[in-house]
Write a structure and sequence with these properties.
The protein has 249 residues and is an alpha+beta fold. The protein folds into two domains: 75 residues, OB fold (Dihydrolipoamide Acetyltransferase, E2P) (Beta Barrel); 120 residues, Recombination protein O, C-terminal domain (de novo design (two linked rop proteins), Up-down Bundle), CATH 1.20.1440.120. It is built from nine helices and eight strands. The chain has a five-stranded mixed β-barrel. A three-stranded antiparallel beta sheet has the order 7-6-8. Strand 6 and strand 7 form a beta hairpin. Helix 3 packs antiparallel against helix 4, helix 3 runs antiparallel to helix 9 and helix 4 packs antiparallel against helix 5. The radius of gyration is 20 Å and the shape is elongated. It starts with a strand and ends with a helix.
Length: 249
């Protein structure tokens, strides 16, 4: 069977048969694809021990009739701090679910691969805020998909937004002034502080974002706005978001 190499991240794993696993992989070179790792659930298999969920590896794959086959794996780094923390695992699951949903099979998007890889690396760092890093990912993936929210002018009337509390409408794709937000629009509140943080994120000012001290009420509003914007454009509920909400309640 012809073989090829790929820089790959394990997005999903499914036990198959007595010892195999079917993997959903995000690869830099070939996009999202499914592959089977034969014997991966046997404890002594080198391939299986290197295929941690959310882990990144250099792989050699063989083209198969239905599924490609994982032939060799060289692990790059580890995800032990994600695996050992329920909240970090939940946020990593969100990143993986979004990547799985927004990408077509065998259609590589280099910027998305880099964003996913960088975010998972950050989630594995116990000194960083998993919540803040996941929120940053949401803004960046919305931007890459062409769904970045409107944050400077009112998404309803088009007037410049004043420095005041406002309303976020996923239907209209951005923040509404107080007048437009008063007409029973579905959405969520946005404080002045939250609006400033969203603008930093939208401007891709990562270093400034990392220096910000983000109180929980602000992060909650950021999440509400970006979660709703993403689910609206994907036209589906994200299971990982439901789980995150259940453990945060």
């Amino acid at each position: 069977m012809p073989t090829y190499q790929a820089d790959a991240i394990v997005l999903r794993r499914l036990d198959y048969g007595e010892a195999d696993r079917i993997l959903t992989l995000l690869t830099r070179e070939h996009g999202k694809l499914a592959a089977i790792a034969k014997g991966a659930r046997r404890s002594k298999t080198r391939v299986g021990s290197s295929l941690d969920l959310f882990g990144r590896s250099r792989m050699m794959l063989a083209r198969g009739r239905n599924l490609d086959v994982v032939a060799q794996v060289e692990r790059r780094g580890d995800v032990r701090n994600i695996a050992g923390d329920l909240r970090r695992t939940a946020y990593a699951s969100l990143i993986s679910e979004i990547a799985d949903k927004v990408l077509e099979d065998r259609h590589p998007v280099d910027d998305v691969f880099e964003l996913v890889a960088q975010t998972l690396d950050r989630l594995n760092d116990p000194k960083r805020s998993a919540r803040a890093d996941a929120a940053w990912f949401l803004m960046r993936i919305l931007d890459l998909l062409g769904y970045a929210p409107q944050l400077l002018d009112c998404a309803g009337c088009g007037q410049s937004l004043p420095e005041a509390d406002a309303w976020f409408s996923p239907l209209l794709g951005g923040v509404l002034c107080r007048r437009c937000g008063a007409h029973d629009q579905a959405g969520s509140p946005v404080s002045v502080s939250t609006l400033k943080v969203l603008r930093v994120m939208a401007a891709d000012q990562g270093e400034l974002y990392d220096r910000l001290r983000l109180p929980d009420p602000v992060l909650e509003q950021v999440e509400q706005a970006l979660d709703a914007q993403l689910e609206y454009h994907l036209d589906r509920r994200l299971k990982s978001l439901d789980f995150i909400r259940s453990i945060s309640g």
